[in-house]
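Work Package 3 (structural annotation) set out to generate three-dimensional models for the target panel prioritized at the project kickoff. During this period the team completed the workflow that converts sequence records into discrete structure tokens, so that structures can be stored uniformly alongside our sequence database. As a representative example, we reproduce one entry of 114 residues exactly as it appears in the project archive.
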Amino acid sequence: MSAPANCQLIGRWRIVEADLWDRDHLDLVDPATITIGADNHGEIAFGALQAGLDLSYGPNMVFFTWAGFDEMDEVTGDGSAELLDDGSIEITFAYHNGDEATLKAKRHPSSTAC
């Protein structure tokens, strides 16, 4: 299943804050980002984490499972991203059997909704 035509979350988002980590941690390697593709796949990177996302879509929300590496250790988890009234997204991000964080992201300036 690909993204519905009215999914407003497609694109690249800059992660700007988190409840568990400060900005220095989020941007440890590169600027923290989440990319939500229209092809059931995406990516997230913050701190030392880099992971691929498997997505399912709604008009104002996506759900995902993810798998990747954090400090060279294999990690997995799940989460969701929801469009807020101010145009940002709130991301619930959970490590399998580990931490759960709430992240906030704003649309990357070079990304537009489809």
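The two ends are 16 Å apart (CA to CA).
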